[in-house]
Specification:
CATH topology: TIM Barrel
Oligomer: single chain
Strand order of the largest sheet: 3-4-5-6-7-8-9-10
Structural class: alpha/beta
CATH superfamily: NADP-dependent oxidoreductase domain
Radius of gyration: 19 Å
Number of helices: 12
CATH class: Alpha Beta
Order of helices and strands: EEEHEHEHEHEHEHEHHHHEHH
Strand content: 5-15%
């Protein structure tokens, strides 16, 4: 495993982050979830990402239990705040001071830790003054409940505004957590240049495009039983945009490129996002321990220019590149 600095800070994280969105606390049993965490640790992963909204707080509980006997100083534990939690009442979502301050305490309790290494605004909140949100984050840092602050799926302008306020309040934003893959490249035009200028890194989610870039789905054929595309608990909805015959046909053309690089298609996809110098880490989820053992081999891989050019030639217009696709909910209504 290799490690990278997060933003303009002295804080290092593993270039593969283990994330438990869509799985722990909902789609897999807790003992399997714990096995996945153990596999991640055995593979050298030290960075773990979750959120209070995942499985309505259950994912944090599962992760906390799985990590409770580990040396805390050797781990980097991330969580997020924004989405509706608990009974989803009128103050149970968003980035108000009330919700942030109550949410950090709940997250720490569930994660069984005194602090998180990175606390992230899961989306931008249009209904709360940004000054209120950033002041709450500043107080959490001063209280020692979070060491660093990041955001997720913020636009370039939102990152600029948040960064300016953070500087005024005596702390810094060091990261953004966007979706990023060969097929979803909306951050390249605006978010990454702004982040490089301001000193933020990307911690990217869905580098395998919900599993589509693994090559398991074939045009004109039913999705494999038990795959995300057949999951009625949310997975199928997230993956449906990539399930057209045009996309699946294009993805299959990546197979000989992966073979040339000596990688599986999933490993190639993870290695591809890590070639971007502004990406500090790629988040990898798993519903089975063996998935981690295979995909973590993408860590440290350097793809040469010829391979990168071949990937671009295959993906071409299949990739979404519109910066306007980086967006947050317009309303805090659940």
């Amino acid at each position: 495993m290799e490690f990278r600095y997060l933003g303009h800070s002295g804080f290092k994280i593993s270039e593969i982050t283990f994330g438990n969105w869509l799985t722990h606390g909902s789609q897999v049993e807790n003992d399997v979830a714990t096995q996945c965490v153990r596999a991640a640790l055995d593979a050298g992963i030290s960075t773990f990402d979750t959120a209070d909204v995942y499985a309505n707080t259950a994912a944090e509980t599962v992760l906390g239990a799985a990590l409770k006997d580990e040396r805390r100083e050797s781990l980097e534990v991330f969580t997020k705040v924004f989405g509706p939690t608990g009974p989803k009442g009128h103050n149970d979502l968003g980035l108000s001071r009330k919700h942030i301050m109550e949410s950090i305490n709940g997250s720490l309790r569930r994660l069984q830790t005194d602090y998180v290494d990175l606390y992230q605004a899961h989306r931008y909140d249009y209904e709360t003054p940004l000054e209120e949100t950033m002041q709450a984050f500043a107080d959490i840092v001063r209280q020692g409940k979070a060491l660093y602050i990041g955001v997720s799926e913020w636009t370039a302008n939102q990152i600029r505004d948040g960064h300016a306020l953070a500087n005024e309040l005596g702390f810094q934003l060091i990261s953004n957590q966007p979706q990023y893959s060969m097929l979803w490249r909306v951050i390249e035009a605006e978010v990454i240049p702004a982040s490089e200028e301001l000193g933020l890194s990307q911690i990217v989610w869905s580098p395998i495009a919900q599993g589509v870039l693994s090559g398991k789905y074939h045009p004109g054929k039913p999705a494999p039983e038990g795959s995300r595309a057949t999951d009625s608990k949310g997975g199928s909805r997230m993956i449906e945009r990539w399930m057209s015959n045009e996309v699946l046909t294009g993805v299959q053309q990546l197979k000989p490129i992966a073979d040339e690089a000596g990688l599986t298609m999933a490993q190639l996809s993870i290695a591809w996002v890590l070639q971007n110098k502004n990406v500090a880490s790629a988040i990898m989820g798993a519903s089975r321990p063996e998935q981690i053992e295979k995909n973590v081999a993408a860590a440290g891989v350097k793809l040469d220019a010829v391979i990168m050019d071949k990937i671009d030639a295959v993906i071409g217009s299949l990739a979404e590149r519109d910066p306007a696709q980086t967006k947050s909910p317009a309303s805090r209504e659940a």
